[in-house]
Amino acid sequence: MNDPILQVTDLHKHFPLPFLERMRTGAKAVKALDGVTFSVARGETVGIVGESGCGKSTLARALVGLDKPTSGTIRVNGIDVATMTRAQRRQFHRTVQMVFQDPFASLDPRMRVRRIIGEGWRAHPDLVPESQRERTAVELLESVRLPEEALNRFPHQFSGGQRQRIGIARALAVQPSILVCDEPTSGLDVSVQAQVLDLLRGLVHDRGLTVLFIGHDLPMIRSIADRVIVMYLGRIVEVGPAERIFAAPQHPYTKALLSATPDPLRVTSGTAHERIVLRGDVPSPLNPPSGCRFRTRCWKAQDLCAQVEPVLADDVNSAACHFPENIAPGTVTGSSVAA
């Protein structure tokens, strides 16, 4: 990949269990992330999808420094986050910003919008001279389509969509290069979701941002992402260009996810819709299955799937599956040759 701004290598995040839970379950930790590797090019928008509990939000928190990884490396602009100097860490917190899922919980209810937006400038006073901060705050509000008078109001005086715009403005105040969006539209009405998504598209285009967009809404991910990462039980099972993922998914789990999502384009074209109902529940991250983690719910599982763990051939366009979908016979993918 040319000019990666973000590189994640073999990232693990395990949450240790209390003593009594260890005795009861026989497990030592919840394996929220268990070997995640990918790169993001400068200016790219990457969508991250998967069921609840697959590790998406844990990954987001690790990327912005809110959770310390158990092992593995995160590099931003080639610098390992774990070994940064104090000055480099200050720059890191400017470079990588996050838009949280719940805009009300992420905004201090005791602060007016003026102070919320200005928090980053107090931490990085060299960014905007004090004499220009009022004007810059107004410009930031205008960029997220909020009026100047919003500066004097508190978060509870806004709707959910407006609060999320304030959260976006706060993130943009320190002029980041990477924006991590953790399901930023999940709690909003459908019409408001479209407005916030349109706003994000415009900001990405105007500011040249690199974006990691985490979400459940697959059509929304398709509309905004250049590339899609599919996660299952703490690992990446498929990665590829958005159009390829949605048109010809290779991993059975990706195919099942898409089958559960209404697709207006498929309906209007008259294409048959194959609904896949997965059997069983998602395995526990305390004790994931051997080999392929999806094999306990997969209709294509064979003995090989329990014995050998499939891996991604690359982090740009591949699937971690021994018997992938939509692959010509003899094509190498993951750790095996398609049958």
- Distance from first to last alpha carbon: 29 Å
Please summarize the sheet with the most strands.
Answer: 7 strands, mixed
Give the helix level as a range of percent: 25-40%
Strand order, sheet with most strands: 6-7-8-3-9-10-11
**What does the radius of gyration come to?**
21 Å
E-strand count: 13
Element pattern in H and E: EHEEHEEHEHHHEHEHEEHHHHEEE
Q: What is the 3D form?
A: globular
Summed up, the helix count is 12
Q: Mean pLDDT, rounded to whole units?
A: 88
Structural class: alpha/beta
Can you tell me the residue ranges where pLDDT is under 50 for at least 5 consecutive residues?
267-272, 328-333, 335-339
Strand percentage, roughly? 15-25%
Report on this model:
Mean pLDDT is 88; it is low at 267-272, 328-333 and 335-339. This protein is globular. It contains twelve helices and 13 strands. It has a domain at 248-339. It has helices at 19-25, 56-63, 86-95, 113-123, 133-143, 160-172, 190-207, 218-224, 242-247, 252-259, 264-269, 303-307; strands spanning 4-16, 29-41, 45-49, 71-76, 79-80, 96-99, 178-182, 210-214, 227-232, 235-241, 318-319, 332-333, 336-337. The strands form three sheets. Strands 6-7-8-3-9-10-11 form a seven-stranded mixed beta sheet, with helices on both faces. A four-stranded antiparallel beta sheet has the order 2-1-4-5, covered by helices on one side. Helix 4 (113-123) runs parallel beside helix 6 (160-172). It is an alpha/beta fold. Helix 7 links the parallel strand 7 and strand 8 (210-214).
